[in-house]
Amino acid sequence: MQKKEEMNMNAIVAADKNWAIGYKNKLLVSIPADMKFFRQMTGGKVVVMGRKTLESFPNGLPLKNRTNIVLTS
After folding, report:
1. Which of 36, 53, 63, 73 could form a disulfide with 49 if both were Cys (CB 3.0 to 4.6 A apart)?
2. What pLDDT score does 14 carry?
């Protein structure tokens, strides 16, 4: 019998009271402390995002020092 490996996953999401996470391909708000926290928490880890999120980055390039996984349909 194979041993099942446990996997943990955390999500970092900024949402408004209606659970919106963005508007017109941009974040709802830009809070420098939140961006710093995101960089600190995700460095060297896997980040999962949608195609539009990737395209919103400067030059459409993936985030540095992370494994970037892009989900799309």
Report:
1. 53
2. 87
